[in-house]
Write a structure and sequence with these properties.
Number of strands: 8
Shape: globular
Largest sheet: 4 strands, parallel
Distance between the termini: 36 Å
Strand order of the largest sheet: 2-1-3-4
CATH class of the largest domain: Alpha Beta
Number of domains: 2
CATH architecture of the largest domain: 3-Layer(aba) Sandwich
Structural class: alpha/beta
Order of helices and strands: HEHEHHHHEHEHHHHHHEHEHHHEHEH
Number of helices: 19
Length: about 400
């Protein structure tokens, strides 16, 4: 993992210093395949956010962000990510000597939340660079052909601007090759995640989020395909010898919501100490795009964007969780209600109660934030988890 991600950031660093390639900034569930196919190096600012969260520097940067006039309740990813560029205090520069390249064009997809539009628009205005958008419908039940056609046309409408910025003509064969690589790496990532269905699980949610980087930033590349081929083989070997991520695994937990980036190690130790393995999550499965189709690349991308769990309706989410519970043989579910990322929370409109009543699923809701530890009460969180696990132990 370290070498794979290092290669990605070193190439970005080289581009930042020499400008040998045009740079596109893209949201993580945006049209990266189209950008790669047109010769752009693609940078995902969201990937910078977890780095800030893991280093626990988001809070300090957040204080600076309020000086721009933004609320502290705004999503922490844009808040903590944006300020370093204009203060000069970029963690990757200070720690590793690596630069993060400024964009030639910014591209976002609205299927995550409203904040990405505000985030990227703020950058585009500050940097005076063109910005392109994909507007994906929300609250989708059954996906309709006219919705897919609308998204496909939005992607096609980007091409003239991308040709102008990149200096390259659009090549559909190149796009098909890139989409095929994304499909392959995504299917391999899904296969890796599915290994947690085995008893005992060979890895946990806390391992998975550290291995999901290539599924996001290296989509459409051979490097991602090679990485997940190796990872899958390693996981299959662990299953064969009976390796268990949690010794004496007794309970299997499903995590719904964002990770708490600054508390991963402590939470992993807590669950392990209680013989409980967090085997699956909505978060890690959000980057499974098996809908990509190189034979019809635009429609395949449109379907992948439309099937993203955040834009689906509650009936679909209930169906999805039910299948995940059965597949991974889960004993209980934890919702993490991230204060500054409400769009990735499925617990605010009676869904936990619905899971309990309709599906017989035991649930626990934790509160806090994915980055801003100001909103996180560690003692309360630990006490809640301990009580929940003890309760599940009695029932199982």
């Amino acid at each position: 993992m370290m070498e794979t991600m290092k290669g990605y950031f070193l190439e970005l660093d080289k581009a930042a210093k020499s400008r040998f390639r045009k740079i596109a900034w893209c949201t993580s569930i945006g049209p990266a395949e189209l950008l790669h196919s047109m010769g752009f190096l693609v940078y995902f600012p969201e990937n910078h956010g977890p780095l800030l969260g893991l280093s626990r520097t988001s809070g300090d940067l957040m204080l600076n962000y309020t000086a721009e006039g933004f609320s502290r309740d705004v999503r922490v990813l844009p808040a903590s990510d944006s300020r370093p560029y204009f203060s000069g205090k970029i963690p990757s520069r200070q720690t590793y000597g690596l630069e993060i390249p400024l964009p030639d064009v910014l591209v976002y997809n609205s299927n995550q939340n409203r904040d990405v539009k505000d985030w990227f628009t703020w950058y585009a205005q500050k940097l005076k660079k063109p910005i392109l958008e994909v507007i994906t419908p929300s609250n989708i039940g059954d996906i309709k052909d006219d919705e897919l056609s609308g998204i496909s046309q939005q992607l096609r409408d980007m091409i003239p601007t991308l040709e102008k910025v990149s200096g390259n003509k659009f090549d559909e064969d190149r796009l098909k090759e890139t989409v095929a690589l994304s499909r392959q790496s995504s299917e391999l990532w899904e296969a890796c995640l599915q290994t947690s269905a085995f008893l005992p699980s060979p890895w946990s949610f806390f391992d998975q989020i550290l291995h999901m980087g290539p599924a996001i930033v290296l989509r459409g590349t051979n490097e991602a395909v090679d990485y997940y081929n190796l990872l899958l083989k390693d996981l299959q070997k662990k299953i064969k010898v009976g390796f268990s991520a949690v010794e004496h695994e007794a309970l299997r937990i499903y995590w719904d919501g964002m990770p708490i980036w600054g508390k991963l190690r402590g939470l992993e130790k807590l669950f392990r100490s209680m013989n409980s393995c967090v085997v699956a999550s909505t978060y890690c499965n959000s980057w499974v795009y098996n809908q990509f189709d190189e034979d019809d690349p635009f429609k395949g991308m449109a379907r992948a964007f439309s099937e993203f769990i955040m834009v689906r309706d509650d009936d679909y989410k209930e169906f999805y969780i039910k299948n995940m519970f059965r597949n991974f043989r889960v004993n209980g579910m934890i919702h993490f209600d991230a204060k500054t990322c409400p769009n990735k929370n499925s617990n605010r409109f009676c869904m936990p109660e619905g899971f309990s009543k309709k599906l017989g699923i035991s649930t626990l809701t934790l509160t806090g934030d994915l980055h801003e530890l100001y909103f996180y009460n560690e003692k309360q969180t630990v006490t809640k988890i301990e009580a929940f696990i003890e309760q599940l132990m009695k029932w199982n």
